[in-house]
Structure formats: structure tokens, C-alpha cells
Design goal:
227 residues; globular; TIM Barrel
């Protein structure tokens, strides 16, 4: 069995049901994602999010996904929803990251290989971690599209790095090998329908990611001390 420091962290995003959240937590994932983007078919209300948060153990990070919302709105929603962190998926300026961190939230900033902001903009932010995607499709995020994960290789040498976009149980090992992230994030790749997770796919994804022995240093992104 691999040691904990040999394997990527795992975040399952787009959770919409408390029961599903509880089942996923039992698999040992480190974080779940709750979407607060109205155009997404996985969008939840603060009331729904709070029920989901209450179904999870304290050690599992509850990350809210926002797109170009102002700081006050994000903080209000985070308080209503029981969030421990936020993921900024738009063109938010660096000062938003700082304000949210100062309020005690973990902050993940999405960057893109082809889109704004770019991976090269990472040094402008002071996020706790960066989620890298390709910015294909109509909506912010990966839109379930597979991309050339090798384009992100090397990013994790300098920054805490979460890989997303087009991942599923069949390709997650190849994606980790190509990009060398510290954690992986999946949503549609483990679904039966938008917002409805297929637990067999979730289990297969977690098993595949945890089975792979990373041959590089792993930062524990979802741990309080990052180690």
C-alpha cells in the first residue's frame, strides 16, 4: 500500500446531496466542492450547502466554487453554508484572495492554460492552492473536456497544484503522470447525470488515484499545515 505522502489529494466537486457527500467522505477524500454559480446544473443554495456540510466530518474541506462574486457576497454565502474554503473560478483580482484569506478561509484560485488568468499569473496571487484547467467550453471550468495535461507539468514545482478538467476513473493515472499535481479534482467524470454522482465511478476514481505512487514530492493541499 502506498504511503499518504506518495499519493495525490482528491477533491470531488459538484456535490448536491447530503447522503452522497457522506458516502464520498467515507472513501477518504480530503475535500468536496459546492457550486454557487447559477448557470451550472450543479448549483446549490446556501441552505442545501449547509445540509451537505453538516453531513461531512470536520476533517473534510468544504470548498465553495464562485465566479466573479464580490468579497462580501462570498463571505456571506460561506458563513451561511458552513464552508471552510472557496475556489475562485473567474477573473477575480489578487486583493480578493487576500481579503478572503484574512477572514480565515482557504482560497483556491483557478488558472488556465488558455484563458484568463493564465498559469503564468500565479505569482500575482497569494492563494493557498491553484487549480489548473484548460478553459475550454462555454462555462468556467473544465466542461468535462480532456486536454493536454503535460502543459501543466512543472507548475507544481513552485506552487500548490490541483489538476482538473476531463478527469475520470480511466484517465486519472495518466493525468497525474503527465502533469504531476499535488491533488486532483473531478466532477462530471464521476456522474450518472449532472449533480448526481455515480458512486461506483467515484470509488473507481478514488481507487485509481490512491493506487498510483507519485514519484515526486506531494504537498498536502487540504491539510491545515500544507504538509
Amino acid at each position: 500500500m502506498n504511503k499518504a505522502d506518495d499519493i495525490c489529494g482528491i477533491k470531488i466537486c459538484g456535490i448536491t446531496e447530503p447522503k452522497t457527500a457522506a458516502e464520498i467522505a467515507k472513501l477518504g477524500v480530503q475535500a468536496i466542492g459546492l457550486v454557487f454559480y447559477p448557470k451550472s446544473r450543479r448549483c446549490v443554495t446556501p441552505e442545501q450547502a449547509l445540509e451537505i456540510s453538516h453531513a461531512l466530518p470536520e476533517k473534510v474541506k468544504k470548498i465553495g466554487v464562485f465566479v466573479n462574486k464580490n468579497t462580501d457576497t462570498i463571505l456571506k454565502t460561506a458563513g451561511q453554508s458552513g464552508l471552510t474554503g472557496v475556489q475562485l473560478h473567474g477573473q477575480e483580482p489578487p486583493e480578493v484572495v487576500e481579503k478572503l484569506k484574512n477572514e480565515g478561509l482557504m482560497v483556491v484560485k483557478a488558472l488556465y492554460t488558455k484563458g484568463s488568468p493564465l498559469m503564468a499569473d500565479a505569482d500575482s496571487y497569494n492563494a493557498d492552492a491553484y487549480l489548473i484547467e484548460c478553459a475550454k467550453g462555454e462555462l468556467p471550468g473544465g466542461n468535462a473536456m480532456v486536454w493536454n495535461w503535460q502543459e501543466a507539468a512543472g507548475f507544481g514545482d513552485k506552487h500548490p497544484f490541483i489538476l482538473a478538467g476531463g478527469l475520470n476513473p480511466e484517465n486519472v493515472v495518466n493525468a497525474i503522470y503527465d502533469a504531476k499535481p499535488h491533488a486532483v479534482d473531478v466532477s462530471s467524470g464521476v456522474e450518472a447525470a449532472p449533480g448526481k454522482k455515480d458512486m461506483d465511478k467515484v470509488r473507481a476514481f478514488v481507487y485509481a488515484a490512491e493506487k498510483y505512487n507519485c514519484q515526486y514530492p506531494i504537498r498536502r493541499i487540504f491539510n491545515a499545515d500544507g504538509r
